[in-house]
Design brief:
- By secondary structure, this protein is of the alpha/beta class.
- It contains 4 helices and 6 strands.
- The chain has a 6-stranded mixed β-sheet with strand order 2-3-4-5-1-6, with helices on both faces.
- α1 crosses α4.
Amino acid sequence: MKKIVALKGSENKGKSETLRIVIQKIREKYSSALYTPFEQDDKDEKCVFENLNGMKIGIETQGDPGYRLPKSLQDFAQMLCNVIICACRTKGSTVDAIKLYRNDYEIAYIKKTVSKIDFKQANEYDADRIIKQLGL
């Protein structure tokens, strides 16, 4: 079954930064995978990896309410992504957008690790958890 891996946490906890680390690590480890960025700015990115251990993976780092997550999920489903990785809040419209795909995708929520001492280390830890969940 196809899978959505959603990094779940409240605002300003490093979800987008963590998912950018996931993208960076995948690009470094799987340089032969086809990487296609769709939308990028200083903070967020939407991209697809193809030929990644036989998978097509869509990643949306933007997970704030009222922005592009619902459209990105729709786009990734239409592109036939086996795996979708995204950020979401703990409740509300972003979680609701993900739940719309529960009939077609297994949904796995990963709780965002929060550290008041070492923000970067917490983000690296969560990025590694996501990559491990996918068997990469």
